[in-house]
Structure formats: C-alpha cells, structure tokens
Amino acid sequence: MIRSIIKLMKSNYLFTLGCFICLCWILAAIFADFIAPYGPITQDLSIRLNSPSLEHLFGTDNFGRDIFSRVIYGGRYSLLAGCVTVLLAGTIGSIYGAIAGYLGGVVDDIMMRLSEMILSFPSLILAMCINAALGSSLFNTMFALVIVAWPTYARLMRSVVLTVKENEYVEAARALGASKWRVLITEIIPNSVGSVLIMATTDLGNQILMFSTLSFLGLGSAPPTPEWGMMVSDGVNYFNKFWVAGFPGLAILTMAVGSNFIGDGLRDLMDPKLRKEF
Amino acid sequence: MNQKEPLLNIQNLSVEFRTIEGTVYAINDLSYTLNSGDILGIVGESGSGKSVSSLGIMKLIPNPPGKIVNGKIIYEGKNLVNISEKEMEQIRGNDISMIFQEPMTSLNPIIKCGKQIAESLILHRGLKKKVAFEQAVEMMHSVGIANPEQRAHEYPHQLSGGMRQRVMIAMALACKPNILICDEPTTALDVTIQAQILDLIRHLNKEMNTAVIMISHDLGVVSELCERVIVMYTGCIIEESSSQELFENPLHPYTIGLIKAIPKISKDREPLQTIEGVVPNAMEKTDGCSFWPRCKDVMLRCKQELPPMIQVKQDRKVRCWKYVVGNRHEGI
C-alpha cells in the first residue's frame, strides 16, 4: 500500500501537490504558536488595514490584526471542523449504508428513504436551518454539517456493499458458520471502505468550504475566532483592500483543491481501468 | 450411531424461487442418503438444481426469493429445515462444510490465508488466536501446501488457483466436519491441478473419514472420485447408481446421452454427440417426465405421468417408464 502510494506520488504530480498543500496546512495549524508572528486576536488600531509588507506578510484587517497569523491559526478551526465532520459523517453513513445494503429488502427500503429525506433538502440551506435553530457555535456547526453529509456516504456505501455481498467469499464465510453480523463486520465492511475513504478525502475540501460558507454567513464560529470563512466575510466590507478577504480565501481554496487532488489520485489508484503503470 | 443409520438423510426436499415472473421449481422431491465416509457424486447440466440442493443442506438459499417448501434434511437426528439460524451456524463449518467453484473469488482478498483458516477454528472451537493460527498452518501442510509457514502470511492474490483451492479446502476442513460439500471444486482449474485436487479430496476422505458430496457437471471427475452417483435433471433425481455401473450400463436416456456427449481423445474422432433440445424452463411444471421433449424413447405415458423412482437392482434406481414392468423393458 505504502509502496503504491509512493509510486502514485511519482507519476501523478497533482496528487503529490495535494499531499504537500494539505500537509503544510496541517503542520501550520499544529505549530501555529511557533509560526505565527503575532497573536490571532491581538489588536493594534494604529495599523488597521495596512497593505502586505515585510512586517505583516498578508497585511492587517480593520482591527489591525495580523492576517498572516490569523490565517495560520484559522487552519485549526477549519481543519478541525472539516476532519471531524468527515470522520463522523463517514462513519455513521458507512455503517448505516452497509447495514441497509447488506440486509436488503424492506429494511433497505425504509433506511434509504429515511436518508433520502435529508438528501432532498438543499444541503446548505438545511445546514443553515439546523445551525440557526441550535445557535451558532463551532460544535453546533459541525453537528449540522454531519447531519447534512452522512446520507451521501450511506448511499455510496450501500451501492458498494450491494456488489461486495455477491462475492463468493461472503457465501464461503457463511458456509463456514459465520453469523450475518460477523460477515458484515469481517468480510463486507473491510472490502467496501475503499471507495468511502476516497470520497472522504475529496469531501474534506467540500466540508471546509461548507464550514467557511456558514461562517461567512454569520453562523458557525463567533467573532473574534480567526476562522477562514468569517475572515472572508469581514473583508467584504473593504473591497478595495484585497488582502483582507483575499488571503483567507486563498487558504480555503488551496485546502479544498489540495484535498480534491488527493481524492482524485487515490481514485486513480483504486480504479484498475485508470491504473496504467501501477 | 447405529451403523445402518445414514449420516445425512434428505427426504422429499423441494425448493422454490418465487420471482416476479413466476415461481421457479428448482428442486422437486429430492431424496437421497449419505453414509459416513462415502463419496457421493451429483451430476447434471447447468440449472438442474445440483448447486441449489447443496445450498439447501447448508440452508444458504437466498431467502427471499428462495424457500424450502417441503421435505426434511435429517442430520444426526435433527431436521435441519426446522432448526433455528443460531443452531445452523453451529453446524455450518463445524459439522457440514462447503467449498466453492471459484477459488479466485472464494477467499477474502484482504485477509491473510492463515488467518482465514484460523477464523473458523476461533469461531467453532473457541481457540485462542495464536493456537488457531498454528493449527491453520498445520492444516495448510496437510492439504499439501509447500512452505505453509510462509504461505499463511500471504494474501490470496499471491497464490495460484490450485493453491487457493487448497486453502479453501483447508478452511472447510479445519474443524474436521463430518460432511464436505464440494460445489464444482475443480471447474476453474486446469487438468493437472484438477487431478491433484481430486487426489487430495480422496485422501482427506480416507484419512479424516469425512463424507463428501461432489457436485459436478464433469462426468470424468465424478467417475474418478465417487463410489455412488446421482444424476439430476430439472431438480429431480433421474438415476442413482454406483459409479462403475452408471458408466458401463446407463439406464436413463438422459444419462446415456450425457455419457455419449463426453469428448474422447482417440485417433478416429467422431463428431461429438449432443442431446437434442434444451433444458426446459423450470417455471413450468409438467405432468409427465420433464425429459420427454428431448427423449428418443418417448412413449405416450411419459407425457402424462411423472415416472416414479424405480428400484431396478440393489443400489440402482432410475426414474423412467421404460423400466416399469408392463411397459417395454429391456436393457437391464
């Protein structure tokens, strides 16, 4: 597995680039205390809305806070929200979908109709509604995103399980006396998670975008938290000062693109038709 | 157990598949017995119900749409048709085990071979992981895998087809079951490997006294391995005999046709004989014998009444009106 990922990195430079970008952001978020030159909420009104300079690499915002430091710290919130959402939604969704697909019949019908109820809402609006109803906080936003995101995973997992469960080794395991649940856990789920993992890497970018969107709209985290989406939202008022909204926006963009590159690369690795030299 | 009491006794088993297009009568009134240590062959064309009958014994017929509608499967005094799923899980793999046609796909691709064999030992014998793994390696050795310690740590895709089928057999036999059902175990293998696997099955049958039900469409395989053979057609047994007699003196017109249709390697090659017509649609239940549209010796009675199972000799049964006293009867 590790060897094939290294091979993939050598041949697919977009994948390598994606890994590099994501790794940079993750490291920046972890070591923000050492990297950031200023505190994320340290105000200095004498230098408000200064353009980028050597002192303030990304310039300063309307409260005179260093945007570079805020972007570095902001990664903590955005990445945390993205990762937790993907992890929770992925786990819940795949287990749900695996059960539905494996049991089939009426159970499958009922379970999938339930999940489709959530899918039938526009996801952003539903997330906004849930978030607005619960009140805006980091936790509530993540909760809202999980609620919106899991049915997609459930559908994907179900469709994979439908093909995996027809494999002869599933029947063989049954013939050797494994119970239905044991087969589900030892045979079916491990053989199906591959595509869910790929979707999760791609989805990480989407979830960060969603989180930023909610923050931009005033839901999500509350000021003065240095969250990327909220920082973009702050910058909208100073349209001629491009750096205020531009740099946090760039951060969102690179993170989303990076995780998409990783997802695409992994998909190529798994897809035998696209797997040329692997 | 009483010497005369068979290990497995199937009585009047019927299996149906209820689909949207109609009911498929996959198995009709199937009865046979299996004694401990026997090797029983079941032959028939595709769709004759041979695989479904074996899945029926394991109670692995997908339900819905499949259902055992009638009959008994008696194993050690218990009727498997009626017992609960929990009890059945105890029997599967432990008392009755099964190997499948496709060694390429019957192993879980992401679990190491040794662990897969150990799995059923952990499940049924409650062994510790390490002990089970050691026994699995031993099992791999006894099914003729060279270098089992190393092979046990390999994934299925690293093994050849024959090797995988050996792993499959090791898995099935790990708990020393009384009955091993082989569902066309050599179909996907080439001829030399096929011979090795058959030898292995015969050897294990002798050594472990495991009764074997060998399902195949390949008469060569069956004649090589089995003592007793059942010929199935459209879910019915049409002939039951010792394997030697079946090949020397087949009785049912279908069996005669089947044996004639075996390709022979000889200098003066004749065109291959076939049985005219196709297997009838299993959705239609006919009153008469299901083979009459393809039969050369068809009589009026064949179209009207299903022939009974006729005992022509000891251990020799056939389902054909030709052999009923009062009808034309010759050839015995």
From TrEMBL, chain A:
The chain crosses the membrane at residues 12-36, 79-103, 124-150, 242-263. InterPro entries: BP-dependent_transpt_permease, MetI-like, MetI-like_sf, OppC_N. Gene3D superfamilies: MetI-like. GO terms for cellular component: plasma membrane. It comes from Alkalibaculum sporogenes. Belongs to the binding-protein-dependent transport system permease family. It is a multi-pass membrane protein. Signal peptide: none annotated. One of its GO terms (biological process) is transmembrane transport. It is found in: Cell membrane. Keywords: Cell membrane, Membrane, Transmembrane, Transmembrane helix, Transport. This is ABC transporter permease subunit. Residues 75-263 form the ABC transmembrane type-1 domain.
From TrEMBL, chain B:
Its main location: membrane. It is a peripheral membrane protein. InterPro entries: AAA+_ATPase, ABC_Ni/Peptide_Import, ABC_transporter-like_ATP-bd, ABC_transporter-like_CS, Oligopep_ABC_C, P-loop_NTPase. GO terms for molecular function: ATP binding; ATP hydrolysis activity. CDD domains: ABC_NikE_OppD_transporters (cd03257). Pfam families: ABC_tran, oligo_HPY. One of its GO terms (biological process) is peptide transport. Residues 8-259 form the ABC transporter domain. Keywords: ATP-binding, Cell membrane, Membrane, Nucleotide-binding, Transport. Gene3D superfamilies: P-loop containing nucleotide triphosphate hydrolases. It is found in: Cell membrane. Belongs to the ABC transporter superfamily. This is ATP-binding cassette domain-containing protein. The lineage of its organism: Bacteria, Bacillati, Bacillota, Clostridia, Eubacteriales.
